[in-house]
Design brief:
By secondary structure, the chain is mainly α. It has seven helices and two strands. A two-stranded antiparallel ribbon has the order 1-2. The two termini are 61 Å apart.
Amino acid sequence: MLTENKFSKYILYAVGEIILVVIGILIALQINNWNENRKVQKQEVQIYKEIKNDLSQTKQEILQAVQINKFCLTSNQNLIKAILSKEQNSEIINNHFIASMVEQKVFPKTSGFENLKTIGLNTLSNDSLRIAITNLFQLSFERMKDKSRMENQDYNISKILFPFQTKYLKPDKSKIMKYPSKFADTLSVPKLAINNYENFVNDEELLQTLQIVLFNRSNIINSEMEVLEEINAVTKNIEDELETLNK
């Protein structure tokens, strides 16, 4: 009986030791999981901040592009009106023609999103926000760039107008323009002016091309404004998510 009693105590002691070891392992695993989750969450917060910063810079660049494009759109419209009414040659008409050829490219900042792709898209725990961010960077930004990218002949304004630029713009030696440079000497060159104005205002192909340019620039502005709305929505959702993660 004494032997059985000792054995029973030994069994209870052994079982107790096993339970304590199991509990210790579970606690260690829980702590490890908690630490890993904190590490992942910290990484997620950092990625959101990087993407938000990229979107802020891209937004400012798009706003500047929209402002320039709207100014050029107005010049384009005024130039078409001047041609249709056969206005006399003037400095204003010359300036409208030059402004019509201006293009403002937008280069979205994508370092945060590229970092996310390297780490893994699943780093972002909010599925709907992850999809919204992916669509913005991989679809909306690309569509916006397609509307104004240089190699796209259908939308490239400078390429469309280049033949008319070489045909009608000639250096006016009586008007010298100075272009200061931060790292080089100031450049002094004759100002470009419309040559053979009579042919210019009666060129039907030029008028048709200016109307195409007007339509293309309007499309570019619309595309940029749509992306701005999407940036604002995604930025707001990122701010809300950061507030949740930092609680």
